[in-house]
Amino acid sequence: MSLKDHVTHGCLKGNRGISRANRAIRRETVTSKSVRIEDLTVFATEVIRQSGQEALRYYGKGNPDVKFDDDLVTDAELFLKDLFQERLKAQFPEHLIFQYDKQNKGYSHEGGRYLWIFDPLDGVANFQAGIPIWGTSLALIENFWPIFGLFYMPVTGDLFYARVGHKAFRGEEELHISSQDNINDESLLLTHSRFHRYYHSTFPGKIRDLGCTSAHVCYVAMGRAEAAIIAHESYQDLAAARIIAEAAGAKIFKMDGSEFSLDDYLDGTRIDDHLLVAGTDTRSQILGYLQEIT
Asked: Angle formed by the axes of helices 213-221 and 235-248, to 10°?
C-alpha cells in the first residue's frame, strides 16, 4: 500500500474518543473543499524524498579540521530551502511556508489557509560528520489544524509519516509505541546531549543520545525506545514528529507530567522547556527515575 493510500484511507483509532474523531472529520471536510488530500500527499512525499537525495550531495563532507563545519551546513540548508520553495511555488503557488522566529502574518483562515513547515536538516552535527542519523521533516497545517507530517532519513531510507486521526507508518510498517508495561534494564531512554547537566537519573535501562530529535521521537513512535527527552526545540523542529508520535500513541509532556501544547509556539518562538515524549502510561515511570539538578 502506498503512502497516499495509507494517508487517504487509514481508519480513525477507536480509543481516541468522539471528540478526536469529530475534529478529524472537520479537518478532512475542510481539506476536501479546497485541495485534494491525495495531491497534497503526493507532493509532500515526492518533495521530501527529492530534498533528502539532494542533501546526500553534502552529507559527510564537513571540513575534518574543524569540529563543526558551519559553512557546509549553511550551504546545504539554503539549497534545500530554495528547492522546496521552488517546488511549492510551482505546484501550489498560493500556499505559504513557515518562517522561523517570525509571525507568519500571511497565514489566515481565508486565502493563506495552507502553511507548510519544512525543516531541511535535523541532526546537523551527524549530517556534516557523516553519521547516518539525520533527516528532513515536512508538515502541513490548514486553518491552524495539523494535517500530516513526514520525516525522511535519506541514508537509511526510512520514511516516517502520519495523517492526523489516522495511523502512523514507517514505509509499509504500522507504528505503535512500546507495549512494555514496566521499565527494566533493557528499556531505552533517548536524551539530548546535555541531559546529565540537568538531571540525576536512576533509570534502569540504557540512556542514549543519537543526535537527532525527530529520529528520537520517531523511534519512540515505533516502540524502539520507551521515551525521549528533548530540549531547545521550536515549532518547526517538532511539527512533523509530533503528528507521527501522536498517531502511534505517544504524546509530548512537560517535565512535571502535564501535557504540552506545541500549537502555542506557532509564532516561531523557541521552546524553553525540556519535554518528554512517551506513552501516557509510561510517563509517570520515566519521570519517577529523574531528579532535576538545582
From this structure: 10
Please say which residue of 174, 202, 226 terminates a domain: 174
- Domain containing 111 equals 3-174
Pair 85, 226 in one domain: no
The span from the CA of 191 to the CA of 212, in Å, is: 10
Q: What are phi and psi of 261, to 5 degrees?
A: -110, 105
Q: Is residue 243 part of a domain?
A: yes
pLDDT digits (tens, 9 = 90+) for 212-251: 999 999 999 999 999 999 999 999 999 999 999 999 999 9
Identity of the amino acid at 180: Q
Task: Tally the residues of the chain.
Answer: 294
Residues 215 and 102 occupy one common structural domain: no
Distance CA 104, CA 98 (A): 7
**Phi, psi values for residue 116, rounded to 5°:** -100, 135
DSSP state of 76: H
- Nearest CA to 145 out of 113, 175, 118 is that of 113
Domain boundary, last residue among 141, 174, 207: 174
Q: Give the residue among 166, 150, 149 at the shortest CA–CA distance from 158.
A: 150
Whether residues 215 and 133 share a domain: the answer is: no
pLDDT in tens, 84-139: 999 999 999 999 999 875 555 555 555 568 999 999 999 999 999 999 999 999 99
Pair 128, 243 in one domain: no
According to DSSP, residue 16 is labeled G
> Does residue 286 share a domain with residue 213?
yes
C-alpha cell belonging to residue 272? 524553553
